[in-house]
Amino acid sequence: MNCVFAIKSLASVGGGAERVFVDVVNGLSARKHDVIALSYDGPTASAFYSLEPRVKWIRLGIGRTDSATDALETARRIISLRRSMATLRPDVAVGFMHSMFIPLGLSVLGLGIPMIASEHIVPAHYVDRPLQRLLLRLTPFLARRIAVVSQQVMQEYPPGLRARMVVVPNPVRTVRAVQADSIGNARSRKLLLSVGRLTEQKDYPTLIDAFALIADRVPDWDLRIVGEGQCRSDLQARIVKACLQERVSLPGATAEVWAEYADAQLFVVPSLYESQGLALAEALSCGLPAVGFADCAGVNQQVRPGINGVLASGINRVHSLADALAGLMTDDQMRAALAGNPVAASEENDLERVLDNWETLLHKSLRTAAAPE
């Protein structure tokens, strides 16, 4: 099968959707499909996560991929996408995330090329984005199918979108040789770890403020937030204001995230919302106990209170998170007990199972099939 998988950027550092994209295209290529990766990156860009040599990467080189685009640049991208699709004539095209599947869907109108929209976020993301919310409503007219990562996520969307949706879970990597030391007896300092993009969705201001509240109670602990994003300068200023420069670090993104899990004693996810929580699933598989919010979809399905972590709840997010963290950071035996129940990734998140699902979806969406309902 000839297929094009398109995403805004592969050069952007350390995003979960980008990692899933690379795992899927590499996996399908290994299964002898002809897979082309396409992005807006510049012609000399390098992929943050490595593509297999069999995967051809087309870099359109239109606009910046680290900032919002205006109407003119979006129009240029749609025109360039249409030219590429008309030349490549793939059996099927897949757009990862709304930043790509909306323009990709518009670009293939009238070309007879079916498009699959791969959505990696929940409806809460669109609450303060009216234009994006409106465009999302158009997706059923552009896409043969909309892939979402879980049944829980699907149920949050309105019926008109759910009718076109199918669940294709994300692959979750596991490295059996990596097991975290939740107690950290041999360490002079213990580590509270979070992994994710530095964006508003992840709500790292709440985490920094919560850590500031309990810093004096846990003098042998440091906080490490691994990731990159547009909120870096604001977060750095917040750290300085709290006089925590020596204890809170923002080292940037890394492709070697397993070393981070192995080095930590506790994992935390302060996100406002998640679709699946890829880093959380990986951390739990390493035996790291985790703390998150009870009202966060994508987190509350993975963190099981009393088994592998704690879920914070309460009107004041900062205080409730601080209390949940302090309870575990001051209790080595509790962390050890929770770490004794590592949660392996579900069978549905096994890469080979995920690739089976993608193959089924791609075959059902071939351009020789009937037009979208």
Briefly characterize the structure.
By secondary structure, the protein is α/β, with parallel strands linked by helices. About 35% of the residues lie in helices and about 15% in strands. The protein has 2 domains: about 1-170 and about 350-365, Rossmann fold (3-Layer(aba) Sandwich); about 190-345, Glycogen Phosphorylase B (Rossmann fold, 3-Layer(aba) Sandwich).
Q: Which key phrases capture this entry?
A:
single chain; 373 residues; Rossmann fold; seven-stranded parallel beta sheet; six-stranded parallel beta sheet; 14 helices; 36% helix
What does this entry look like structurally?
- The protein is α/β, with parallel strands linked by helices.
- The longest helix has 18 residues, at 71-88.
- It has a 7-stranded parallel sheet with strand order 3-2-1-4-5-6-7.
- It has helices spanning 16-30, 71-88, 98-107, 130-137, 139-142, 151-156, 159-162, 204-214, 232-241, 257-263, 278-285, 317-329, 332-339, 351-364; strands at residues 2-6, 34-39, 56-59, 92-96, 115-118, 145-148, 165-167, 190-195, 221-226, 248-249, 266-268, 290-293, 309-312.
- The protein is globular.
- The chain has 2 domains: 2-172 and 349-364, Glycogen Phosphorylase B (Rossmann fold); 190-345, Rossmann fold (3-Layer(aba) Sandwich).
- The model is unreliable at 367-373 (pLDDT under 50).
- Helices cover 36% and strands 15% of the residues.
